[in-house]
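Q: Sequence in, structure out?
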Amino acid sequence: MGKFGMAALAAMAAFTLAAPAQAGVLENFQVKFGISGILPDESGDPIDVDISNEYVPSLQIEYFFNDHVSAELLCCVATHDVTAASGTIDLGEVTHFPPTVTLKYRWTDFGQFEPYVGAGVNFTAFIDSNPPAGRHVEYDSSVGPALQAGVDYRIDEHWGVNFDVRRIWINTDVNISGDITASDEVDINPWVVSTSIAYRF
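A: Exactly. Output:
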């Protein structure tokens, strides 16, 4: 699972164990721990790129303003393999941290099913680049919009399961130096598909 997955799991456990003592503070919160597929829909200008799909642990923290309106933060860390020019240029691995905040509206008149839609903003920081020896690759941070749709299935008052799909727009300028010198503007624009266990306080 790695250190980031363990940190997310520890955060969820801390929230859950704190619930009885902090019910008055946390009663409007829901946390979800699960797996997210980061599925880039990438393109580059002027150089085409290919970015691998990855599946990583993810944590979602949601605050309810009322039964219908909430705000949610999605956190995960993913490492992708990157190539360019139809696979002829190896750019190694890149690790990014893409927290995404959305404002959501849910429907509560379908029994245990609570479908919702949301819109918000993503910030992506590229926190590590590991290209082949003799090559240096830098990625600029990105800010862009995000949309989501999904459903919570309520098992009981506290526990549930979740399925969620997000479309996130990520654009970065990539600068390559060393044995190759080039610049590229890359649209990553991933679909993020998540399935999670939910706990509402």
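The longest helix spans residues 2-18.
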